[in-house]
UniProtKB/TrEMBL annotation:
Name of the protein in question: Uncharacterized protein
Top-level lineage group: Eukaryota
Organism: Dreissena polymorpha (Zebra mussel)
Length: 52
């Protein structure tokens, strides 16, 4: 396996809900590596729900 050096962003975030609908769930990020370095960011956040 090759090492990974992350300087950017890897994201699989869910979208926000609309008109009294819950937001979408975040996805998954799977990294298989021998070594992981860098100051990047990995996110898999759920989207916000809405009221009204």
């Amino acid at each position: 396996m090759m090492p990974v050096y992350l300087t950017g962003v890897i994201s699989c975030n869910g979208e926000a809900g609309t008109s009294q609908v819950g937001g979408a769930s975040g996805g998954s990020v799977i990294l298989k590596t021998a070594k992981f370095n860098g100051k990047g960011k990995i996110t898999a956040n759920g989207g916000a729900g809405t009221l009204g």
